[in-house]
Amino acid sequence: MQTPGSQFLHERNPNLHSSQEVEGVVGYLRAGGESIPNEPSDKISAYLGFLANGDYVNDGILTGDQSSIDRQIDAHVIKTEDVPESYFELQRRIAREQGHGDINITREMREQMIEAAQADQRVGLSKWVEYLGGEDGGYPDWFKHYTFSSVTKIGGFDKEKGEFLKRSKGTTAPYPELNREALAYVYDVLNKSRVQGEKVDGGASDEQLQKLLKGANFGRLYAHAVLATAPTSPELLKDTHGSWTKFNQTNDPRTARRLSGSLQGHGTGWCTAGESTAKSQLSGGDFYVYYTRDEDGKDTVPRVAIRMQEGTVAEVRGINATQELEPELADIASEQLQDLPGGEEYIRRAEDMKRLTAIDKKITADRSAQLSKEEIRFLYEFDHEIQGFGYETDPRIAEIRAKRGELDYPELKVLAVEHLRESFEAAYTGYNAIAAELNKLRASRPHPKRLFGRRSVEHSLGEQIPILNREQVTKLYEQKLAEWRENGVLDYVAERIVTHGERHTPIARPNIVASTDELKELAHNFAKGQGWDEAYIYHALYDAYTTNEELAQLSGFHENGDPVEFSLIPNKFSDELGYKTAEEQRGILNTLKAQSPKLNRHISSVLDGLSLWFTLRAQGDRLKSGNVYDRTGIRHIDVPEKRVDGDDRVPGSAVGDVGGPGLSGSYARVGGDARVSVG
Fold first, then answer.
1. Mean per-residue pLDDT for 238-263?
2. Are strands 312-317 and 642-644 parallel, antiparallel or unpaired?
C-alpha cells in the first residue's frame, strides 16, 4: 500500500524505485510472502516501511538507533585520502592573513587539520540525524529520507548568491546548519503542494516559490526558507512586556494555521512555525506563546513557547541560540509554569538560568570576583547538571569556567573529595542492588561450579555473593579514597572538572564473574524499574563471549582482589580517545596508561556499566531526559571484538535518552565515542 510522499519521492528521483537498494528490499519482502505491486510508489513505500521497522533493520534516521546513526554519519564524513591539497593551501593563506607568516604544514599538522574538518562535519551532520530520528519534529518517513539524502549533497552557504553549494567527495566544508524553523517551512510547502495537491501562497515571493516547488530541490528550498525566517530586530527584543496566548488542544487546522502564522517571519527557530508541525503538536496538547510588543505596541513578537503533551508540560523554548530561554524572561516563564502540570522540572531549569545569569554578571563585572562555595558547586554541577531550555548546553557555562578555572581550582579539589564521599550512599545502594539481583538469579538458576583462576569457590560462576554491610563497604571505600589521594587520582578528578567539565561518579560492584545471561537479566530488571518491559539486548554479540576469560573481561573481574571493586566513571565521553576505531582507541589508551600508570586508566566493564545505571538512579536521576546516552554510553573496547552479522563488533552498554536501557554493540572498525574511567 502506498504511503503519502512515496509518489513525490518517485517524481523527485524517477530511478529510486529501480535502484539496487530498493529492489533488494522489495525482493526480500516478496520472498517472505509479502505482496508488493510493481508500481514505483508502492515499491518505495515498502522500502521505507522496511527501513522504519526495527524488526527488520534499525535505520537511524527513521528509528533513532544509535549504532545505525553512527554508521550513517561516518559514511558521509570526508575520508582522509579525499582531502584536497587546496584545503591545506587555504589554511596557509589564513595563517598568513592572521599574521603568522608563511608556515610549513608538517605531517602532524595535516593530520590535525583533517581531524578538525572531519569533526566539524560529523558534529554538523549528527544534529540533522538526531533531530530527524527523534520525536521533536515528528516528520513522516518520506520527508526524513528526502531531507537526509539531500543534506548529504550540499555544502556551505553562499551569502552573495543566497544558495547552498554542491558537495563533492573532496568538500571539506561543514554540513549546513540545522534551522528547525526553516526545515518546518520546507516540509509545510512541500507537503501541501506536492503531496496533498493544495495551492501554496508564497506572498510577495510567490512566483519564486512556485518555481522552487516545481523543482523540489531541497538545497534551494531550504535556502529560501532560511532567508525567509530572519530574526526579529534586536531593538524590539529589549522590551519584555507582553502577554500569554493559549492555543487550545484541537485538530482544527484553522487554529494550527493561526499558531504557525503568528510565529513565521520572526526567526524563532521553532519548528512550530510550520503549519503541519503546529497541527501535529496541537493534536497532542495545548500550546502557550508569550508575545512582546512590536513597532505598533501590539503583542505579536513570539519570545517563549510552552508545549503540552497529554496534559503535561513537554517542552519549553526560547529564541536564543539553540532555542535557549532569554535570561530576562526566566521569571515570566516560571510564573506561567507554576500553574501547569509537570511544570516543576522546567521551573527548576528557569531557576538554573537565573543563577547562571547572576554568576555571569558577577564575573563580567569582576573576573576575579570571589564565588561562594554554593556558587562553585552549582557552576561545576556537583549537585545536578545545569539544564536550560535549548537543544544544547548553555554556552555560558563553558565560557565562565574558562575564565575561572585557575581561581576555583583550590576549592574544587576540596569539593571533589566531598562529592566522592557524598556519593558513597548511592554507590553502596548500587552495589547492594547488583548483588541482590545476582543472588536471586543464582538461587533460581543453579549453575555448575566453575572456578576462575585462583579465586575461591564463593566467587565462582553461579555461587552466591556475600552481602557486605555498610560498615564493611565504607571501610573499603575509605581505604580506596586514601589510595586515590596518594596516587593523584583525586587531583586528576578535580582537574578534569576545570579542563573538560567532567564529573566522576564512584561505583561499587561485587568482584565476581557474571555470565552473559546474568548480565542480560540485570539489564532487563533495570528496564522494568524504568517502566520498560525489557532492555534491548544484542543477543548474537553477547552470546559470542563464552570462555571464563571473556566473561571475566565483561565483568571486570580481578583475581585475588577485594570483594568490592570501586571505580570512577566520567559523565562525558573522553576527548583523548576521539571518534576512532576500537583498535585506534586501544592504542591511545595504552599510551595514556604508560604516561601515568598510578591513575589506573581503564575502560569500565559491562558489569561496571550496569552498576553505573543503578547508582545514578539511587542518586535520584530518573535517567529519562537530557543527555542520558552521553552520560551512560560505554563502548567496551577492552573486550576483543567478535565477528557477528558479517562485521567485527565490540559490546556497548547505555541507557537511551528516553530511559530505555540496552546492551548493544558497535562496529569495531568504524569510529565511535568512548570514555576512560580511573581508579
1. 93
2. unpaired
The per-residue pLDDT of the chain, averaged, comes to 87
Q: Cα dihedral angle (315, 196, 43, 646), rounded to 10 degrees? A: -20
Tell me the three cell numbers of residue 517. 545471561
155, containing H or E segment: strand 154-158
Euclidean distance between CA atoms 206 and 126, whole angstroms: 33
**How many domains, in total, are found in the chain?**
4
Domain of 386 in residue numbering reads as: 357-417
Instruction: Please indicate, yes or no, if residue 486 is contained in any of the structural domains.
Output: yes
Q: Which residue has the cell 565483568?
A: 555
Rounded to whole angstroms, how far apart are CA atoms 141 and 60? 12
Pair (392, 501) in one structural domain: no
pLDDT at site 528: 93
Strand-pairing partners, residue 609, are none
pLDDT tens digits along 114-164: 887 888 788 788 888 888 877 666 788 899 989 999 999 998 777 677 788
Beta strands in 392-503 (DSSP E): none
* Amino acid at the residue 559: E
**409 and 315 together in one domain:** no
Q: Phi and psi for 62 in degrees, rounded to 5?
A: -95, -25
Give 43-94 as a DSSP string: HHHHHHHHHH-TTT---HHHH--HHHHHHHHHHTSPPGGG--HHHHHHHHHH
Residues 73 and 138 in one domain: yes
Closest Cα to residue 62, out of 74, 44, 48?
48
Q: pTM to 2 decimals?
A: 0.66
Give the pLDDT confidence of 510-546 residue by residue, as tens digits.
Answer: 999 999 999 999 999 999 999 999 999 999 999 999 9
pLDDT of 177 over the 90 cut: no
Determine the Cα–Cα distance for residues 52 and 535; give it in Å rounded to an integer. Answer: 20
Please give the backbone phi and psi of residue 504, each rounded to the nearest 5 degrees, phi first.
Answer: -100, 135
Q: Do 397 and 510 fall into the same domain?
A: no
Residue-wise pLDDT for 537-557, tens only, equals: 999 999 999 998 999 999 999
Nearest alpha carbon to residue 356 among 314, 319, 389: 389
Q: Which helix (H) or strand (E) holds 241?
A: none
Query: What does the buried/exposed string (b/e) look like for 349-369 if buried means 16 or more CB atoms within 10 Å of the residue's CB?
Result: bbebbebbbebbeebeeeeee
Q: Which of 393, 417, 441 is the last residue of a domain?
A: 417
pLDDT tens digits along 347-372? 988 899 889 999 999 999 998 899 99
